[in-house]
């Protein structure tokens, strides 16, 4: 049987690893702006299980373990919050689709949309020198990786990729 210090170190390392398991999921939620693959029943059950385990470890006096469990519970609640936000307010939510349909319905009789950027402004966003790159064309307004750049649909449109010389 190892001594108490070794047991505490093993428990702390295990707790840190378990807490860090949520980081790739949080990164993916941030990068894709979609939480469609996560199920609410799973997330609720996971958070309840973490909370009950935290209470047990707290009452048992396992300080190292309950601190790690508390960090993991915080991460799980963050994932649950991100899912709720993305499902109801994110770019793929029902509200976003209704907003896009509403903007499409705002087009004037000549087919132009008064909410969209004018042609020269759109062109200045599409590449570094203001001209359209080879094969690129103006697209419908969307957001590129959540950068808040409405009217830009691809990273190359704002010069985030290498230009061909």
TrEMBL record:
<dbReference type="GO" id="GO:0016020">
    <property type="term" value="C:membrane"/>
</dbReference>
<feature type="transmembrane region" description="Helical">
    <location>
        <begin position="63"/>
        <end position="86"/>
    </location>
</feature>
<keyword id="KW-0812">Transmembrane</keyword>
<keyword id="KW-0472">Membrane</keyword>
<dbReference type="InterPro" id="IPR006603">
    <property type="entry name" value="PQ-loop_rpt"/>
</dbReference>
<feature type="compositionally biased region" description="Basic and acidic residues">
    <location>
        <begin position="154"/>
        <end position="165"/>
    </location>
</feature>
<keyword id="KW-1133">Transmembrane helix</keyword>
<feature type="region of interest" description="Disordered">
    <location>
        <begin position="99"/>
        <end position="165"/>
    </location>
</feature>
<feature type="transmembrane region" description="Helical">
    <location>
        <begin position="6"/>
        <end position="27"/>
    </location>
</feature>
<feature type="transmembrane region" description="Helical">
    <location>
        <begin position="39"/>
        <end position="57"/>
    </location>
</feature>
<dbReference type="Pfam" id="PF04193">
    <property type="entry name" value="PQ-loop"/>
</dbReference>
<protein>
    <submittedName>
        <fullName>Uncharacterized protein</fullName>
    </submittedName>
</protein>
């Amino acid at each position: 049987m190892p001594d108490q210090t070794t047991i505490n170190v093993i428990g702390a390392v295990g707790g840190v690893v378990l807490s860090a398991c949520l980081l790739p999921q949080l990164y993916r939620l941030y990068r894709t702006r979609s939480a469609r693959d996560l199920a609410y029943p799973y997330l609720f059950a996971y958070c309840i299980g973490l909370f009950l385990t935290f209470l047990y470890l707290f009452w048992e006096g396992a300080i190292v373990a309950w601190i790690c469990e508390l960090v993991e519970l915080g991460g799980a609640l963050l994932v649950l919050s991100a899912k709720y936000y993305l499902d109801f307010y994110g770019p793929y939510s029902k509200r976003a689709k209704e907003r896009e349909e509403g903007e499409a319905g705002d087009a004037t009789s000549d087919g132009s949309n008064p909410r969209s950027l004018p042609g020269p402004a759109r062109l200045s966003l599409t590449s570094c020198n203001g001209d359209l790159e080879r094969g690129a064309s103006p697209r419908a307004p969307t957001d590129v990786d959540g950068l808040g750049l409405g009217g830009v649909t691809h990273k190359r449109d704002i010069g985030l990729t290498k230009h061909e010389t």
